[in-house]
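In this supplementary section we document a worked example of the pipeline. Step one takes a protein sequence of length 50 as its only input; no multiple sequence alignment statistics are reported here. Step two produces a three-dimensional model, which step three serialises into structure tokens for compact storage. The input and output of this example are shown verbatim.
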Amino acid sequence: MVGIVVVSHSRQLAQGVSELATQMTRGRCPLAVAGGLMIQIIQLVPTQLP
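The serialised model returned by step three reads:
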């Protein structure tokens, strides 16, 4: 069971926020991290995004 899901375009940012939240909750709240973009998406111009 997950209490908080941290989502960001940056994997490093999502992991950092997760570490901070873990410290703030003293490990009592289960966390999941979803961060980072696939390189193909980064290379698209905004008008090409679905």
